[in-house]
Amino acid sequence: MSEETENIVIRAEQVTKEYQDNGVPVKALRGIDLSIARGEFTAIVGPSGSGKTTFLNVISALDTTTSGKVWLNGRLITTMSGRELSDFRRDHIGFIFQAYNLIPVLTVEENVEYIMLLQGVPPEERHQRVVKILAEVDLSDYNDRLPTRLSGGQQQRVAVARAIVARPSLILADEPTANLDSKTAMELIEMMRNLNETSGTTFIFSTHDRRIMEKARRLVVLKDGKIDEDKLQS
Amino acid sequence: MRLYLKLAWRNIFRNKRRTFIAGIAIGIGLAALIYTDALIAGMTRNMIRSATASFLGEGQIHRAGFRETLEVDRTIVGTDAVMAQLETEPVVEAFTARAMTFAMISSPANVQAVSMVGVRPNSERRLSQIDDAIVEGGYFIDDNPRDIVIGRELAEILEVELGDRIVLTAAQAGTGDLAQEMFRISGVYFFNTPEMDKGMAFVRLDKAQQMLNLDGAVHEIALAFNDDTVPRNRQHPFWSRFSQNGNHALGWVDLVPQLESVLKVSQFSTFIFGIILFSVVALGIVNTLFMSLYERMYEFGVMRAVGTNPFAMGRLVVFEAASLAVISIVLGLLLGLAITYISSQTGIDYGGIEFAGVTFRELLYPELQAQQFILLPLCVFLLTIMVSLYPAVYAARLQPAEAMRKSL
Amino acid sequence: MMFKIAFRNIFRQKRRTVLTVLTMLGGFTLSSISIAWSDGSYSRLIDMFTRNQLGHIQVHAQGYLDRPSLYNTVDNYMQVGDQIGSTPGVVAWAPRVLSAGLLSIGEKTAGVKVTGIDPEREDATTRFDLKITGGEPLTPESSKKCLLGEGLAKTLKADLGDEAVIVSQGADGSIANDLYEVIGLVSTGDQMTDQRSFYLTLTDAQELLVLEGRVHEIAVVGVDLDEVDQLAADLKASINNSELQVETWRQVARGFYKAMQADRQGTWIMLFIIVLVVAVGVLNTVLMTVMERRREYGVLRAIGTAPGQVFRLVLAEVLVLGVISCVLGTMAAFAINYGLSSTGVKMLESFTYGGVVFDTLYSEINAHSYYIPGLCVIFSAMLVSLYPAAKAARIAPARAMRIH
Predict the structure, then answer these.
(1) d(CA A41, CA A35)
(2) What does the alpha-carbon distance between residue B195 and residue B186 come to, in Å, rounded to a whole number?
(3) Of A33, A158, A186, C281, which is most buried with the most CB atoms under 10 A?
(4) How far is residue B203's CA from residue B120's CA, in Å, rounded to a whole number?
């Protein structure tokens, strides 16, 4: 049992989520049971309104559940306080959002090292890790640029770099390629998969793009707030 | 046009909090100005009253040159004729005659220099407030010619009380000889004004005339008018009519000239204060308008794309500013009137403080005036409109595509 | 890190930053000038009338200040004077005999205030020698000579060399009566005083009023007007006489002091309003900025920034703006205050307040006309920003991210 729990990064048990949208109650998640193991490269997919974003928010401690439990790295996050969750996210989860990931007034290098700074990593080590990761995402020459001077794809790569360099247990990406053209999108997902394979960091992402979906090793399909399909692919 | 007015009005309520906060800022500025204006008005009234009603009167007639030297010989020419003429004057509400000179007042304990003033109690009562300020004894109630009424501070300095005897020494008219007479204290007053409480001693006019060898003459006739404007109007025929035969008639504006000028200065500094305050407020308005612009960039872009011309866009911004101004003015008026009203009921105590030759005796009551409701809000309104031209021009110059791209 | 972000955030919306800085700057400068102006006018004035007439401190017999009486004197004044002179911090002291009387020259008579002075000491204490405008001053050797205030001389149509007769009351109850030669004219700058001033030597006055070895008042001038309270305490200790009262100028010129305090209050109220208006302006700006950057704050919170850090981020931005405004404001206010302190503004018509003549108003350069507005502006801006900062800190990451 303990070995299993050590390997399970996320466990969701009977998770439901209901919220109010302009006064109209919405049942976004209707009882989800799911386990995700270390090292997975999993896509959560489904049509609009299926609950993808909500699910990702819930399992990453960005949002609370209406009922049900969620364990992250063996810890029950549904009972943690706001401050605990904040620190937990900082240390264990990396985020890549659809857009507006980066702090507009910080350079690429400063953006990437931000979380390490929060974690208290000493300057020398921070610098080394930043240089290394920028090389891995192929943005070595861009370390002094401001986000406004980067293309959409470059911004997302910086987001990936920032997420990974803080050595989280898990990286969550909510529609990371939605704003990119298809070529850049593919490049991005390839890069993420590479990083997953070389570093062993768990990647969970949501998407509605078929070609992106194909890149995942596991596919969880949501429909109307419940899991419809859960299959492995290559 | 009406559409845009409606649109503008509704637009500012989209972000109620921002509109409210901006409205408060402007409102406070307006309220401050209203209050200050009321305060000055109240102060003006108070000072004029303090200066004139207590003893000075709203106007005085003297022999030409008397005021500069206060010589006992310089009495009014043709006293009886002048007073008879005053009786017939429609604008004059009351008048009284006085004889006055320097005198030494001494008691067993002390000696002081004072102004000795001989008065006619009955007519004096109607003009000055000394009778109302009596705290001990009475204001010449008996017929005793040796009655003297002095201020409480003077009584304390001389260490005398009601009924005690004091001696007045003064130089007579004509001969310049010193005359000394004994008087008995029949009344003590308290004016809360050092000059009056320490520096004056009142006796009966006929006694003074006798003691100073005046032969029925007087030095001063004090006047009260039933028309406020007469003393302030140097051109009024009254003044020339009574400045003849060697006499000189002056209104309070000349008797206490610093008063008028000081009040002007106060108004001026309030004006400056208002300007600067509103500059600060104006910055806030511009900021607010711009921020509400940025929020709606996309929308503005669409409006332009759909065919709204630049002028209409700019005008929309101005209309919004005007709507904001209206709300702020309402807030400001409510706030300002409330504060002024409360203050006008309780009054402000400046008691004992001297300003421009006048000592404040009564509480200061800020005065609500019509112009505060009209002139000041109008200024605020115009200011807001003027200041909105900056963001209005900006809005007018927006290109549709650029606007839609700029949106967040 | 937060500070770095805050600082750079300022440059994002240049127009907004400029307008906000201008708002705070305007408030700061206006407040600074008001305070400096008020301080400058008063301190110059106080310096003038304490140095020229009142002295910094006065010593009287108990109760004299409230009830001036011919009989309430400082006895053995030389002894008291020595004690005063030996107190450290005292620059000079001058004894005075004060009374009232009737003065006649020729056929004209006027009520006067009689002042007996020690010419040398009076010169040292109140620079009396500078006030002589005609004829000669009194000297220790002068006997039966007098000085008239300019206004008085005019009223009495007196010339130098005329004979003046004074009638007053002696301390023994007798009529005091004597003849003096007018040898000089005095102008103190205060018309009301000059209309009634009559000066004799101390010895002559004491003889006239039968006050051997007694005076009514000793004026004392110290090194520094600001140290006057300490000096008064020291004097009280060295004189060590319960029958004498030592008062600072504030008590002697009570009327003026009260008026000054009242005016100061008015200034504080005005300041309060200015700061209030500025604060509201800042609130609006900061609130709207926070609202605009909702998403950004959401991301920051998502990736692990603690609420407290976001809170500090918002406040830091306000702080930087505040400091910039105050620095710029200090420069602007300094320039204006400097100009106004050297040239001053002449009043169209001089007026009196609290019994003192205000003719030209000067500003002055002093520390607290800068740090008071500075503290007020920054503090109020920060205070007012607590609300938006709290809102920013409380932005729940998920909700902020919902992009539709």
Answers:
(1) 13
(2) 20
(3) C281
(4) 9
CA-based nearest residue in chain B for residue C288 = B291
Q: Which of B191, B259, B266, B264 is nearest to B231 (CA)?
A: B259
Phi, psi dihedrals of residue A173, rounded to the nearest 5°: -125, 115
- For residue B335, what are the CA distances in angstroms to B31, B143, B276, B328, C266? 6, 56, 20, 10, 19
- The answer to whether C306 faces chain A, any CB pair under 8 Å, is yes
CA-based nearest residue to B116, from B162, B76, B172: B172
Q: How many residues does chain A have?
A: 234
- Taking only residues 272 to 291 of chain C, the set having a beta carbon closer than 8 angstroms to any beta carbon of chain B reads 273-274, 276-278, 280-281, 283-285, 287-288
Q: Please give the Cα distance from B64 to B71 (Å, whole number).
A: 11
Alpha carbon of A231: minimum distance to chain C alpha carbons (Å): 28
Digitized pLDDT (tens) for each residue of chain C, 404 residues in all: 778 888 888 888 888 889 889 989 988 988 888 888 888 888 877 887 788 788 899 999 988 888 788 888 888 888 888 888 888 889 999 999 999 888 888 878 888 899 999 999 999 888 888 888 888 888 888 889 999 998 889 888 899 999 999 988 888 878 888 999 999 999 887 777 888 899 999 999 999 998 888 999 999 998 888 888 888 898 888 888 888 889 998 888 877 788 788 888 888 888 888 888 888 889 888 988 888 888 888 888 888 888 888 999 999 999 999 999 999 999 998 888 888 777 777 766 666 666 666 777 777 778 888 888 899 999 999 999 999 999 888 887 765 555 44
Residue in A86, A98, A104 closest to C301 by CB: A86
| A-to-C residue pairs, Cβ atoms closer than 8 angstroms | 70
C196 secondary structure, DSSP code: S
Subunits with 3+ Cβ pairs within 8 Å of B are C
Number of H helices, E strands in chain A: 8, 10
C1 and A117: CB-CB below 8 Å?
Answer: yes
A contact residues 158-187, partner C, Cβ 8 Å cutoff: 162, 174
Q: Is B163 left (phi over 0), alpha (psi -120 to 50) or beta?
A: left
Size of interface B-C (CB pairs under 8 A): 182
Single out the residue of A83, A47, A1 nearest to residue A213, CA to CA. Answer: A47
CB atoms within 10 A of CB C389: 23
Set of chain C residues whose Cβ sits within 8 Å of the Cβ of B17: 287
